[in-house]
Predict the 3D structure of the following.
Amino acid sequence: MCGIVAYVGPKEAYPIIIEGLKRLEYRGYDSAGVSIINGGMHTFKCKGKVLDLEKIIEQDKVHGTLGMGHTRWATHGAPNDINAHPHLSGDSNLAIIHNGIIENYSTLRTALEKLGHTFVSETDTEVLIHLIEEIRNTEDLPLEEATRRALTKVVGAYAIVVLDKNDPNKIVGAKNSSPLVFGLGEKEFFLASDASPIVKFTDKVIYLEDEEIITIHRDGDYEIRTIENEVADPEIKQIDLNIEELEKGGYEHFMLKEIYQQPLTIAESMRGRLSADEGWAKLGGMEQHLNRFKQAKRIVLTACGTSWHAAMIAEYLFEDLARIPTEVEYASEFRYRNPIISPDDVIIALSQSGETADTLAAINLAKSKGAFIYGIVNNVGSTIARTTDSGSYIHCGPEIGVASTKAFTSQLTVLTLMAIILGYEKGKISEGYYRQLLSELESVPSLVAKILTKADQIKYIASEIRNTSNALYLGRGYNFPVALEGALKLKEISYIHAEGYPAAEMKHGPIALIDMYMPVVVIATNKSAHEKIVSNIQEVKARKGIVVAVVTEGDHIIKGMADFTIEIPYIEEPLSPLLSVVPLQLLSYYIAVMRGCHVDQPRNLAKSVTVE
Ligand code: F6R
């Protein structure tokens, strides 16, 4: 969603804000804007990316040591110059940037119009700054108090920063549902949507809680109050993030860097969590609640997008290895469909960002029904990580490319480990198989590294099919969700229409689409269903479809039938998604690059979806 950054301190604010916006651009890139206070409020904003904003800046007007910036993912109102943030109050004294949605903005707007306010944009955000202005001017209140009172009238999600041109030593921020981090540097202070614009300057942060309002004074005094006007007692935390993790490190795109990081990130996800030689595996967050897991009548996994695909693979893992009935739910459906949840259920919520609004709402719903909630999250200290009862971080480092890659394989690593532990603890898998699975899991990083050496071959396949308008992805069993993930990767970054299907379902409909122009990517590594997949490939070939098959090394049968094959090393089937997804990530990446698409910032998408 939108990215927010604000600065006050002894340095020039503008370069710090622009650099911060570039780091936050993964959250949205429909438009960008800044306001700098220096003898007045100097605001520049435009449709497009931060680079476009830099082109329209009048350098002499952006000198100043207090300011804020915003990069937008449009919700209310089209992405254009007028709807870009910051938005100003009617008297132009106040400016606001906002991430989230004000749900009752229409009622508020009508009421304010009756009081004589006029609006220039279509946004909900402009309504909020007029409301603050109205309260402040009518009751002659300090900015923070006017903001607090305004927020008591607001329904919705927000992270906001508000500035007053007549008070050049103060920044006011507030949050509800959308994240906001306060950074405490050496005589300089920051507010941001996440720590990425802050880490260069300080590792001390406070994560604001919902319905908290912060007032930061230039001299370093700060105060956090709740919306009920009680003084909060926040904890200063140390962030463990270094600046190199936020750079491309010589790769052309973050997505490519993140694909190539996977041997390392998968290893990080298991570090200190297993030893096949010694025959043990543990996850700290799970160990404390092992009985809850062992006695669970049911596991329900909930997530969105790619995280939902990881959850689907977990359904196969938990049922196959641990024999625990498992269901998978789109968080957006779960939260509204009045699901039956009992205190015996274990709910596992997956989220890379830890901020996805639908996943958070699903967690809160399950919590209200007494279920135990386990989080599998990447972003340390994120809202979901803090809301769940227990959990495991996936430790893959910041994922900046909008298309999720390394987070997916790290989620799978943790889920696989959970299933192996539960299978063993429940006596559903033998000691021998337990050790074998652990040992194979330990070998995954080196096997992924081996697959990555096939990049040129995958690039060649990409060049052969890049002009297609449609593609079909087929897989069976553990690799059916991988087919869904492969299709999602292709559509989100190359804008090619792609669908994933269980291979055997093809004949119930999608087969009608197959002709000589249709690439069909088949994940054909399953030992258990090999013959059936061979038949599915024959059905495609009989209709002249172009088959790209991901096969196990040495599979000459499928090699002889497919137009293109990508061989990957053999691994036990429950672990196979960890390998089979990697060539699909590379295939999508190369196709998107060859089509001239903006791989790291695909159109209409944002990395962290903090609105419904
Ligand atoms: C796809 C992608 C999205 C996210 C989804 C959930 O590549 O990145 O589908 O997986 O928005 O996000 P998280 O995992 O942050 O909750």
